[in-house]
Amino acid sequence: MEPFALLAAVLSSPWLVPAMVLMVAVDGPLPMLPSETVLLSATASAVVTRDLALLSALFLAAASGSVLGDLATHALGRGSHRLLPRTAHADGGIARWVRANLFRRPVAALVAARFLPGGRLLSCAAAGRMGLPRQVFLRASAVSALAWSLYMFAIGAALGPVTGGNPLLCVVAGGMLAVLTTGAFAVAQRVRSTIRRTGPAPLPQPAG
């Protein structure tokens, strides 16, 4: 079965909502499923058909699946480094930023990372490896899950009238959003680094 035919079958299945919970959860420690594409397409379709019950169910599925996946990644980060993908051990700009802010601003670290490609895996695994308390992590994860679900539903609602819920157009839109988000973060990081390097000149010392 072709990928888009499979996606269309999932969208029309009565198991769409529980499948959404599972896909978003598994997408935490093993980001290989097109959970965001399915969620965007399902939301766009529900907006077109004005199915409020399905929209509510999808929102709860996205939020609960996000928290479950975060907790699984946090647990794997604490207990094993071998079961996580190599991207969880990356040492790039995103990873450094998350580690620098994880204990000072855990909510901000998890929320910001959640909107970047690979950021969810990096932030949740780092929280487990660095020993961020589970209760603190759970609160930050809940805020992150709600923020991400609201963001995805806003995008899905905007795409509904434009795409008519067409999976191919939703895939293209999702890819463009990922590129724009990553680019914006990279620009912000570069500007921040430039400001730090070219900070205010030291005040002259008084003579004698």
From TrEMBL:
InterPro entries: DedA_domain, VTT_dom. Pfam families: VTT_dom. It is found in: Cell membrane. The chain crosses the membrane at residues 52-76, 136-159, 165-188. Keywords: Cell membrane, Membrane, Transmembrane, Transmembrane helix. Its main location: membrane. It comes from the Bacteria. Residues 37-157 form the VTT domain. It is a multi-pass membrane protein. Belongs to the DedA family. This is VTT domain-containing protein.
